[in-house]
Amino acid sequence: MKVVIVGAGFAGLRLARKLNNKEGFEVLLIDKYNYHQFQPLFYQVATAALDASNISFPLRKAFHKSRNVRIRVEELWQVQPEQKVIVTESETIPYDVLVLALGADTNFFGNQNVTTNAFPMKSTVEAIQLRHRFIQNFEDAVRAGTPEDRQRLMNIIIAGGGPTGVELAGALAEMRKYVLPCDYPELDFKQMKIMLLDGGERLLGAMDPKSSADAQRYLEKLGVEVHLKTIVKDYDGRNVLLADGGSIASEMVIWAAGIRGNVPAGIDKSLVVRGNRITVDRYNRVHGIDGVYVLGDLASMVTPRYPNGHPQVASAAIQQAENLAYNLRAQQKGEALREYEYKDKGSMATVGRNLAVVDVPKPKLHFRGLLAWLIWMGLHLFLILGVKNRLFVFLNWVYSYITYDQSLRLIFKEFYRAKQPTDATKQAQVNPAGT
User: Fold this and answer.
1) Which parts of the sequence belong to the FAD/NAD(P)-binding domain (predicted)?
2) Percent of the chain, pLDDT > 70?
C-alpha cells in the first residue's frame, strides 16, 4: 500500500512514525519545510526566549533507520482523485492512500489591509520575522523624532484572546518588566502599552470560565490592557481602526484571531465547511472520494459529542493519526475498522512566570498558578521531538528563570522590510549644510 502523507505537523508526522518499518506499507511524507515545527512554542521564539532550532526537528533525521518512509520537500499544487495522483511543484505522484494533514493557516477574514500589515505567527519563519521587527521597533523608537512616533513604535496590539494571544501577551509583559529597560535605558517603558483585543466575552473561550478569569487577572497584574468585545476592523500599518469607531496608534499588530484550513486545489468545494475544513466520516475518510483521508486541523468530523467538529489542537491531531494507522493496518489484514472518538485529556495556557491555567475534564479539575505552570512545562517538554531539543529548551527555561533574561535578541536585516533612503536623503545626511 503506497501511502502519501502531505503535511508533517503533529498528525502527519505521527502517522508516518506509526507506519514506519511496518510490512506492506510504502510511505512518502511531503512538506514544504524539511523540519517539523512545534507550534505551541512559536511565541517563545517570537519573544527571544528560544532559538528556532530548539523547536524544529529535521524530518529526515526522524527516519534515519526507516526502510519504508521517504521524504519530499515541496509544495502540493493539486489533488486529482479520479487518477489517484497528486501534483506537486516538481512531479506527479500516484498513491493508493492519500492523507491530507496540511493543518491551518492564519485567518484574516478577507481583510487585505490586515493581511498586508499585521504579523501572523503560524510558522517558525513568521515567529522569527515577528521577533526581528519587534526588536527593530525599539531601535527605531530610540531615534524617533516626536513623542507620537515613539509611542506608536512602543504600542503592541495583539488581536485574539485564545492561548496564542494570552501566552504572547504575558511573555511580552515580562520582557517589558525585566529585559527591555536594561537594553534601552533611553526609553520610558511605563509608556509602553501591550493591548490584548478579543471580540468575545472572555479570554480562552474554549476553556473553563475559571481559567478565563484567572488568565485575565494574571495579565492585568502584569500590566496588559485586556479589551473584550473589541473587534479590529482595519489596520493600515500605523493605526488600528476598531469596529466601534475607536483608533489605536501602533506599528505592530500581531494577528492571533483565527485560523482556516489549508484546502488544496482539486477538493470538491461542497466538502469544505466552516473554518475552511474538509468534511470527513468517523474514520477520517473524505466523503465520496476513494482513498483520501484528512487529519488534524483540516478535518471536520461531526460526532454526537462534537457537533461542530473537534477542537483544532495537537492532541486531537495526534489521536486521529494513531487511529488511522490502526485502521490502515486493519484494512490490510481484513479486520474491522475502528471509529475515531476524541479523548479530551485537558487544555492549558501559560501567562508568565509561575502563572498558568490547566483544565482536566475527567475528573473535572482546575489548576492555576505555580502548579499549573509546572504541569504546562512538563507536558511541553515531553511533546518536543528529540532529546537534544528537550535539553536545550529546558536549559533555556532554567537560565531565563534564574536571570530574568533572554539572550537571543538579534536582528537579521533580511527578515524585515527596512525603509530604503532616497538619493536626496542620502545626500542630506552626507552634506547637511547643502554646500
Assistant:
1) 1-321
2) 95
What is the CATH T-level fold of the domain 112-257, as seen in this structure?
FAD/NAD(P)-binding domain (3.50.50)
β-strands 104-106, 259-261 pairing:
antiparallel
Structure pTM? 0.89
DSSP states of 101-112: ---EEE--TT-H
Residue 126 identity (one-letter amino acid): E
Helices 124-142 & 147-154 angle (0-180, nearest 10)? 160
All three cell numbers of 323: 487511529
3-state DSSP assignment of residue 57 = strand
For residue 425, count CB atoms less than 10 angstroms from its CB and return exposed for 0-12, middle for 13-18, buried for 19 or more. exposed
Residue 192 burial by Cβ neighbours in a 10 Å radius (0-12, 13-18, 19+): buried
Contact 298, 262 (CB under 8 A): yes
| CATH 3.40.80.10 fits domain 2-106+259-333 | no
| AA letter at 29 | L
- Kindly report the backbone phi and psi dihedral angles of residue 434, in degrees, each rounded to the nearest multiple of 5, phi listed first: 75, 20
Q: Do the domains at 2-106+259-333 and 112-257 have one common CATH topology?
A: yes
Rounded mean pLDDT of 185-214? 95
Rounded average pLDDT over 151-161? 96
Q: CA-CA distance, 11 to 296, in Å (whole number)?
A: 6
* Amino acid code (one letter) for 371: L
**pLDDT at residue 408, rounded to an integer:** 77
Give the pLDDT band (50/70/90) at residue 410.
confident
Q: How does residue 407 score in pLDDT terms, banded at 50, 70 and 90?
A: confident
- Flag whether pLDDT at 282 surpasses 60: yes
